[in-house]
Amino acid sequence: MRKRPNKIFARNLKCVRTSLFMSRAEMANFLDVSYQQIHKYESGISHIPLNHIYNISQKFDVDYDVFFETSEQENWEDQLAQKIIFLPDHISRKRVIKSIRALVDS
Question: Which is higher by pLDDT, 77 or 37?
């Protein structure tokens, strides 16, 4: 069964926020909306305005495609990989990857 587009978008929005290590309150402050409104966006109850998507994309250097990705990201490996991708800088990504490789090799 295919998910509804607003549910896919809502899941991806939450994934972007958590990948940026932002709380709902921080995202709400950035977008100048209430904490509850972020919850509604991430639950698929309310649709997020396009200008908010634009602002998130520009401020945090997130491609628009990420919001509309339809693949299921249910297992922990995919979730971990996505979080690594969204680390704020390449040095952090390299450190995390190096640590994971050390764990795998041990």
Answer: 37
